[in-house]
Amino acid sequence: MDASPDLPPQNRVPIFNMPGVVTASIGVLVGIHALREFVLPDTWDIAALIDLALIPGRWSVAVDPARAEELLRAATALAGDPDVVEARQAFARYVVADPAAMPWTFATYALLHGSWMHVIFNTVWLAAFGSPVARRYGAWRYGLIALVGAVAGGILHVLLDPLSTAPLIGASAGVSALMAAAARFVFQPPPVYAGAPPWQRPAAPPLQTIPELMRNRTAVVFLVIWLVTNFLFGVIALPLGAEATSVAWDAHLGGFVAGFFLLPLLDRARR
After folding, report:
1. What is the per-residue pLDDT for 193?
2. CA distance linking residue 86 with residue 14, whole number of Å
3. Burial (0-12, 13-18, 19+ Cβ within 10 Å), 7
C-alpha cells in the first residue's frame, strides 16, 4: 500500500525559478531604465537624475556651507575632456547655489543606472544572490538588507569623496549587501537528512560564523575575488554609464559590510 501523500499535480514549470520579490525587483530596475531611455524627454531625465541620484558635494555643502569654496576649487582642478570639465564646473556652481539636503537620495540612487549594460550587470548578480536570501528570509527581510546596503554604501561614498559632484547611481551597493548576506550560508555543504521522506524539506542550517567562513575554502575564494574585483572598479574605468555618472567601489564595500553584519541580527529575530 502506497503511504506517500497525494501531492498536487505540477501543471507547469515556472520560466524563472526565482522568488517573486526578486523577479519584481528586477522588473522595477529594468522598467525604470526603460522609462528613462525610451519615454522621458532629456530635460525630465536630467531632472530625475538631479533629484534622485546621490551627489556627495551637495550633502557636504548642505551640512557645512563653509565648504562651498573648497568644492568649487575641486571642480576647477578637474582634468579630462574640456567639455566634460566645463559641464562639471557648471554643475558644481549649481550645487553651491542650491545645496539642499535630499535624504531620500541615499536610497533612490539605487533605482537609476547609467546604461543597459549597467542594469544587466546588477540584475544578474541580484538574481544569483538575492534569490537564496529571499527564499530563506522572505520578502521584507530581503528588502531591508538591500535598502540598508544601499544607504550604507551611499554614506561611505559621501564620507570618502565628499567634494565629488558626479552623481552616484546603481543598485550595486544593495546587491553587494545581498551578496554578503548570502555568503553567510550558501557555501555550506548540503544538509544531511537521510531517512526523511523525500518531500520533507530539511531545516535551514545555521549561519556560518566568521571563523567558520575563514575555514571554508569556497567562501574565502569568493570573498577574495569580490575584494579584488572591487579594487579594480576603483582603478579601471568600466563602461557602465555616462561620463557624468559614477559606480563607486566604496559604495559596494559599504553595502557588503552592512549586509554581512546585518544578516545575523535578522536571523536571530527570525529564529
Report:
1. 56
2. 51
3. exposed
pTM, two decimals, is 0.84
- 15: three-class secondary structure by DSSP: coil
What domains are there in the chain, each with its CATH number? 20-189+205-270 (1.20.1540.10)
**Would you state the pLDDT for residue 109?**
96
Amino acid at 167: P
Residue in this structure with the C-alpha cell 522621458, named with its chain if needed = 40
Note the pLDDT of residue 201: 60
Could you give the angle at the alpha carbon of 53 between the alpha carbons of 47 and 55, nearest 5°?
110
Of residues 268, 269, 263, 267, the one with CA closest to residue 180? 263
**Cα 258 to Cα 85, 186, 262, distances in angstroms:** 34, 18, 6
Confidence check: pLDDT of 200 > 70: no
**Cell for 230?**
572591487
197-202: list long-range contacts, CB under 8 Å, 24+ apart.
Answer: 197/4, 199/4, 199/5, 199/7
Q: How many residues does the chain have?
A: 271
User: Could you tell me which residues are beta bridge partners of residue 168?
Assistant: 54, 246
| Residue with cell string 531545516 | 203
Rg for the chain, CA atoms, rounded: 22
Written as nine digits, the cell of 68 is 562651498
* Mean pLDDT for the chain overall: 84
Phi, psi of 232 (to 5 degrees): -65, -30
pLDDT at residue 112 tops 90: yes
